Amino acid sequence: MFPSLFKNVDSVLAILEKHVHFDEVKELLRIYEAQKLLYKGPYKKEKLFIVLEGLDGSGKSTLAKILTAKLKGTMRTSPPQCLTRLRAFFDGQEPPLRRAFYSLGNYVLSYEAASELETRHVIVDRFWHSTASYAIAENDTVGGPYDWPEDLLKPDVVFFLAVSERIRAERMRYRVLTGEEGRLKDDSLFRERLYNAFMAMRNPGVMKIDGDLTVNKVTVNIMDVLKAKYNIAFS
Predict the structure, then answer these.
(1) Domain Thymidylate kinase-like spans what residues (predicted)?
(2) Between 20 and 30 A from 212 (CA), which of 22, 45, 127, 168?
């Protein structure tokens, strides 16, 4: 098991508790505990929990917005908005602490989404598969398969938007790249490990969608899957 790949929330908290001398860690733990207290579940899950995954530049955010509108659902991002102000600090930390931030963010998001799933579909731009895959790709080997954490809200379906590097680079050309985005651009072996890590996920695994196509075509392909598998109606 890779040190930054967490199997449950207790393993995440164990890392964070070693760094409580940082104010940002204290704030992260405070937000997590507050969301946990607000959670009144278990809730009756009536709607779909849909996750969009893929490398940066694959079109996840655009597709998430479109699907949210068509499904009249709720869009969430990981890390959730309540943690945005802490992100820059944790992005500057070593991998175990950085991954602990993103991992705990998944649990915060799951608390937010659980009650919404009683009445609305929830569409998420990135979730646990991203957190885990980046942690795995830091290492020389991928291995696998890797199972979903036993205590984290599980998606009904996870779409992976697969794009060629030519298309991805074109879409990223005018962005100011973060450290990891820069590494994706320059390090082909890291990109390969990251892709293979996504493919090594199970329970649930990812469903590949051709992300090189136009936004409209990708949307139609995802809608076709949802209609066929879940009998979902779109506006």
Answers:
(1) 52-210
(2) 127
C-alpha to C-alpha distance for 52 and 38, rounded to whole angstroms: 26
Domain boundaries, the chain: 9-230
Q: What is the pLDDT of residue 181?
A: 64
What DSSP line would sit under 169-204, residue for residue?
HHHHTTS---HHHHHHHH-HHHHHHHHHHHHTEESS
In CATH, which of 3.40.50.300, 1.10.10.60, 3.40.50.2300, 3.40.50.720 is domain 9-230? Answer: 3.40.50.300
Distance of alpha carbon 219 from alpha carbon 213, whole angstroms:
10
pTM over 0.85: yes
pLDDT of residue 1: 56
Distance CA 175, CA 160 (A): 21
pLDDT digits (tens, 9 = 90+) for 14-51: 999 999 999 999 999 999 999 999 887 777 888 999 99
d(CA 138, CA 68) in angstroms, rounded, equals: 32
Phi, psi of 210 (to 5 degrees): -70, 105
